[in-house]
Design goal:
Number of helices: 4
Largest sheet: none
Strand content: under 5%
Length: 108
């Protein structure tokens, strides 16, 4: 979603990718410990296993599926096709003048 809004605002997509990547890495490794620490300080009981499961479901599974799909596409079509044709066709199909076009894939 960050990348779509960055494209709609004609922003710097490379910076958007870096920021989104750093945010995702931070969430993956620090979200559960920080929530556990802060709820422990306030004596709030939480299900820590449920917390870890939610991080895995919302961050881990999409990350793994993205890696698998990219590798399988590159294996079937080749790296050149992936970077040249898929990225180019994705950008051509994007209508950045329409705010309602939220399904526009932005690949770099």
């Amino acid at each position: 979603m960050v990348l779509v809004w960055g494209a709609l605002a004609n922003g710097n997509q490379e910076q958007n990718v870096v920021n989104t990547t750093l945010n995702t890495i931070t969430i993956m490794f620090l979200y559960a410990p920080v929530v556990s620490l802060l709820t422990g300080i306030q004596n709030i009981q939480i299900d820590r296993i449920g917390l870890l499961i939610s991080v895995f479901v919302f961050i881990g599974i999409p990350l793994v599926l993205g890696i698998i799909s990219k590798k399988s596409i590159i294996r079937k079509k080749g790296a050149e096709w992936f970077h040249r044709d898929l990225s180019t066709s994705s950008r051509k199909n994007c209508d950045t003048g329409s705010v309602g076009n939220i399904n526009c894939p932005i690949l770099s």
